[in-house]
Design a protein that fits this description.
Chain lengths: ~240, ~240
Amino acid sequence: MQPNESLHLSVDCVLFGYDDDGLKVLLINQKKDTYVHENGQPMSQLPGDLILIEEGLDEAAERVLFELTQVNGVYLKQFHAYGDPNRVKEHKDRAWLRSVRTQPDQRVITVGYLGLVSLHDHDPQPASFAGGVNWVDVNEVGPLAFDHNAILNGAIEALQTQLESHHISFELLPKKFTLSQLQALYETVLDKKFDKRNFRKNVKKMSHVVPLDEKQQGVMHKPAQLFSFNPDQIEHD
Amino acid sequence: MQPNESLHLSVDCVLFGYDDDGLKVLLINQKKDTYVHENGQPMSQLPGDLILIEEGLDEAAERVLFELTQVNGVYLKQFHAYGDPNRVKEHKDRAWLRSVRTQPDQRVITVGYLGLVSLHDHDPQPASFAGGVNWVDVNEVGPLAFDHNAILNGAIEALQTQLESHHISFELLPKKFTLSQLQALYETVLDKKFDKRNFRKNVKKMSHVVPLDEKQQGVMHKPAQLFSFNPDQIEHD
DNA sequence: GAATAAAAGTGTAATTTCAACACTTAGTGT
DNA sequence: ACACTAAGTGTTGAAATTACACTTTTATTC
């Protein structure tokens, strides 16, 4: 029972991307064929990395995110720390850890970050230095490395709670969006249907959602009014 | 820019205690007279400690809390991680750190825990191995060591948000309580007045608040009905 | 250029929730 | 029995929420 002479701290980013076909999460696969499921499928994981010795937590999360997606300046907030002493000691993860870490037996505590991007506007170009990098529909995520499924679930819960209270929906939408898109986003994230007319009544009350002098173009139906949001009026807390 | 070869991880507990004269937080003073404010007053801090190498985060928080208060089994939840690289590098904290730590220059990341105790029922007996241990009214807390004022503020915010959504009020009240006590608790924590009749209407809707066959005794006025809560019906999430 | 297809956009009535407000009751102490 | 103190209790108007269906605007097809 020594105090922690040497343990490692990492950040793991749960980066959600949204577009018209749903809510995705960014996962990476390792190239190493030592890191596979029993059926030979490559093991996926959340993008994460050890923090540098002089680096703050938020800073580390930004760096990791930038290294993997070239995306800068997105919404990124800590949501939970995961510190089970055995979280990186499962058999399935050992071989890979031994192949990439200088101290594979080291305990690692990780801080989970929730990130949000619109897949409409900036299409993040995942730097694939690691192996494959994929956007996976949140409902189709299989078993992940380490405790990453638990971290992902934590992030989904955090996203659901924060969506309404923290005005973060706009991080997931294009700069100009229609009210139907906004509604679809709410329905996807909260897994719940809304009444169109009532939904729009509520939006009218939100002073940070502003109508533009512009309409949708090239659609085979009545073009929708475009909206934008006024960043000045958003309270992120 | 090396990965974190050796950094330290601690937990800091913001333990709130409640009784009829308000909301208190548990603070410790150091004996060392090297650790004082400029006016000579002893520096106070939140109870916290480095985690042990084989110990989970929740486990560490429980241990620290037990070591300082002999209290077991209270509500204790992680609320935020603090990882500024300079959070333990301020001048005011250096002398003391040098006197108690083998590696005083080591970076320390800390995970903040929110704890709740009723000062009515179990009167925690602070083990004063450190120096003084005091319950301080949350409105009378002066400057604390490190970034502990920020951590305390984070905990107060977390408490306020969670009070209504997470059904945690009961952790702060005696096992048997009156509706006036419950209301006073809400008013203290949320810093906001409630209408007595409306408040009681709301409580009636809470299935986890159950009336007992028992009344207050020895009071100089109409004795209040006592209530208890049914732990089975509480969803902590 | 008339007909069709597809989603956008819009109002009202019924219900529920919320907010404001003041007097009576049950016990203790003198 | 009288005084004191906090407990306990209902009603009304305002506001918010829910449920619900038809018309409009564009692009495409014939």
